[in-house]
Design a protein that fits this description.
binds ligand QV4, eight-stranded parallel β-barrel, binds calcium ion, alpha/beta, 25 strands
């Protein structure tokens, strides 16, 4: 089901990776709602095995379907969905049901449940050995049976052909629906048969109308399928069920802004590049896996660590009418396994907000970078329009318009200034560039752009500037 049930005028979601539910609730009210974000992807909520040194990835090893993780318990989860929905922000849960945990001696979960992982016994669900596929390792991506019926990195693979297992998963997801979520990311969907996913999603309830969903609304589904081509399984097999993560988009946009492939070629970014149909794609510059070198995309991926190029890539994603965009919001890391900011007992630290709106305590909060949240507002402002007045310099400077509602330019050349008079498609007047500043109560803290009677404006992005983008839109008119 492809409708994300976002509120009108909202068009991008943010993954608040590893955030606590109470912090997410605060963020919905104080920032995401007011700044026009449509929804939040929440890290897995089901109780997970506690792994030594508390790596972030322990959350992908469920031990039960109780809501009990380092992000909070069921009561906190329920407070969050209530407060976020009230703020106009939807909640999507990362749902892990291809597998349970890997093997761990004396496995104990974040909610106190125990398991005998070696015997595949998870009494808190309960699942027993018969509820899993026979042990074998995923090691041949040319063989769909191997990918879907064996264990991904030793994670015990659930027998999704079983009615009992399907029922347990549907009960878990239905409980979350009852508590007010709008939909799910399906983790490791490539490792599940589309037919099994279809049967499980058909058992799901309609969304809970007490949270403002229309009656009969079906849960939004987006599936994690990594398909860069060349494997037995293709992303297309999943588009009947819901959206699919388009990893080609993530790796291609990274290569483009890194300069490996001049951005003039972004002119037909989307289907023309062999991606899924825009209406089937969940798009992103980086995700929690490929920002730390796993998943897909390797060294082409841009992250907060290459901040200037990263802001340009995210800005392009938000300005460009293809796919349903997800903004990443990270915690700082040096080691790829390192968990979220935590105290000595492993409890996740609160997100603190600095006076300049950025975050502290180890949280990056890319979604609070002015260039990013102002481009979310840009996307909302130009929704429903297509691209016109594309311009490029034959290399790494580009500009385009969105149907009379917005204009954006990018200078991705190293050491070369952009100084051009360009067609903007906006009505004559003075506009505030929402990248170099913000338009607050009619006063602009950034560059001012004058659009003449002919719709043309002088656009300047110097190579030495902090940002390689310039963006103006109907709501930034002074
Ligand atoms: C280790 C060995 C295995 C061995 C096993 C034996 O490496 O060879 O079989 O022990 O028990 C962690 C460790 C991993 C360990 C495993 C089991 O990193 O070394 O195996 O636990 O104990 C995340 C991490 C994984 C992590 C996993 C579970 O990325 O490293 O494994 O969580 O904690 C493919 C898939 C795609 C997947 C992507 C990363 O097609 O679906 O790889 N992406 C999703 C999530 C991702 C998550 C999972 C899937 C699994 O986005 O974050 O993996 O839920 O491309
Ligand atoms: Ca499987």
């Amino acid at each position: 089901q492809k409708d994300p049930h976002t509120l009108p005028g909202r068009s991008a979601v943010v993954h608040l990776f590893e955030w606590k539910f109470d912090d997410i609730a605060e963020e919905c009210e104080r920032f995401l709602g007011p700044f026009g974000f449509a929804g939040v992807q929440v890290s897995p909520v089901s109780e997970n095995v506690i792994v030594e040194n508390r790596p972030w990835y322990e959350r992908y090893q469920p031990i039960s379907y109780k809501i009990a993780t380092r992000s909070g318990d069921e009561a906190a989860f329920a407070r969050m969905t209530q407060r976020c929905n009230n703020a106009g922000v939807r909640i999507y849960v990362d749902a892990v049901f291809n597998h349970m945990s890997g093997d761990h001696p004396n496995a104990v979960g974040t909610g106190g449940s125990t398991a005998n992982t070696y015997n595949k016994e998870y009494p808190a669900v309960p699942y027993g050995n018969n509820d899993f596929n026979p042990t074998c390792a995923v090691n041949n991506y040319q063989d769909a049976n191997n990918v879907r019926n064996c264990e991904l990195v030793g994670l015990h693979d659930l027998k999704l052909s079983s009615d009992y297992v399907r029922g347990k998963i549907a009960d878990f997801l239905n409980h979350l629906i009852h508590l007010g979520v709008a939909g799910f990311r399906l983790d490791a969907a490539k490792h599940m048969w589309p037919g099994d996913i279809q049967i499980i999603t058909s058992k799901l309830s309609d969304l809970n109308i007490t949270y403002g969903f229309r009656s009969g609304a079906r849960p939004f589904i987006y599936q994690e399928v990594i398909d860069l081509g060349g494997e037995a399984i293709s992303a297309k097999e999943y588009v009947n069920i819901g959206l699919v993560t388009e990893f080609k988009y993530s790796s291609s946009i990274g290569s483009a802004f890194r300069g490996d492939n001049p951005i003039k070629y972004l002119k037909n970014f989307g289907e023309g590049w062999g991606f899924l149909n825009g209406g089937d794609s969940l798009v992103f510059v980086d995700n929690h896996d490929n920002q730390r070198g796993s998943g897909a995309g390797g060294s082409s991926i841009l992250t907060y660590k290459q901040s200037k190029l990263y802001k340009m890539a995210v800005g392009f994603m938000l300005a460009w009418p293809y796919g349903f965009p997800r903004v990443m919001s990270s915690f700082f890391f040096d080691d790829k396994d390192q968990g979220p900011p935590a105290d000595g007992n492993g409890n996740t630290l609160n997100v603190v907000i600095n006076p300049d709106m950025t975050c502290g305590n180890g949280w990056v909060c890319e979604h609070r970078w002015r260039q990013i949240y102002n481009m979310v507002a840009f996307r909302n402002a130009v929704e429903g329009t297509s691209v016109n007045d594309w311009w490029d310099n034959g290399n790494k400077q580009i500009a385009f318009c969105r149907g009379g509602k917005g204009f954006v330019a990018f200078n991705d050349e190293f050491g070369i200034d952009m100084k051009q008079t360009l067609q903007t498609c906006l009505s004559p007047g003075t506009y505030c560039d929402v990248i170099s500043g913000t338009n607050k109560g009619g006063s602009c803290s950034g560059k001012q752009i004058t659009v003449g009677g002919d719709g043309k404006a002088y656009i300047e992005i110097l190579s030495k500037e902090d940002d390689g983008i310039l963006a103006i839109h109907v709501n930034s008119k002074l």
